[in-house]
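FORM 7B: Structural annotation worksheet

SECTION A. Query
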Amino acid sequence: MFIDKNFKNVLDLFESQLNEYSQSGAAFAVYKNGKALIDIYGGYQNKNVLWNKNTIVNVHSTGKGIVLMCVSILIDKGILNINEYVHNYWPEFKKKNKQNIKIKHLLRHQSGLYGWRKKMKVSDLFRGKYCNKIIAEQEAFNKPGEETCYHAMTIGFIINKLFENLTNMTVGQYIRKNLVKNSNINCFIGTPKKVFNNIAKTREIIFSKNINLKNKDIYYQRAFQNPKVNINDTNKKKWITSEIPALNCHSNASSLARLYNKFNVKDNVVSYNTFKEITKIKNYNMDYVLRVPIKWSSIGYIIDGGKLFGKSKKSYGHTGSGGSLAFSDPEANISIAYTPNILLDKNFKDKKYYQLMNFILRN
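SECTION B. Predicted structure
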């Protein structure tokens, strides 16, 4: 672990937070200009097994931000054009009047494919080809650009299909080859069995008071409850080893913060011109699934996430169920990530991350 002398109080706060839930664990990291200011962890990854520097946990939708880094590389190389129609890269996608859906509609959660029309089981998520077959053969719920509806699950499978068609690699394979490379960064979509001993078990679900309202909301049902994934599902080996790009990235705060900090460097992962384009706000409307207005970038990063993303209006990143998140402030070249193993029903209902962030802002 490492913590800069100016942030010693953060470690005290972090350790006190771990006592709130029995045998919970977490990691918190802050990197600036490629160097650690804070890189700490603690608690338990499993019963009687302490969290260590190599512990990873399912970060859920926080992994979307890493997938988007890969999308950015394809854009930068001229392999993918967000203004092209999806069917130009995936001909079968054109069925059922989906010929007008562009890549930008998909990435900005405006394609109308935020769920499946067919009744799905959790086990179906382990079969990416099957999931995409269903998507290709179904009609969208609305016209492209008509509504903003968070594509919680489907977007990962569609992006994965595009990667397979354009690169002959899955998203998980592309991450390992083009982002992680030979570094000591731990970030997986489709986690190998050799690191199973480092995986933290997701501990519990805390339901919000609004859960009954959500159950009755057709948008929420389509996006999050078909299929309905529970805590037991995410701890199973089949879930861990499968590639479910929107939901089952396994990583830790140190790795995520370093990936974001590396991505910030001018002309490093992508050209500066591409970086500027993919972090511009292109969709700021009410999201009918999440029931809040969100500033989506041109490729689907959350921009200016309020208190979650610090002071900069240009901060970009993504959040995930359970309170995990990773983001970067490109102006200060500072990147922050938080990865707990407590799965909450409502993102960031818990106060622990806010407390840590307030300490950072004060310093």
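SECTION C. Observations
The mean pLDDT is 93. Residues 217 and 331 are 39 Å apart (CA to CA).

SECTION D. Sign-off
Analyst initials: ____
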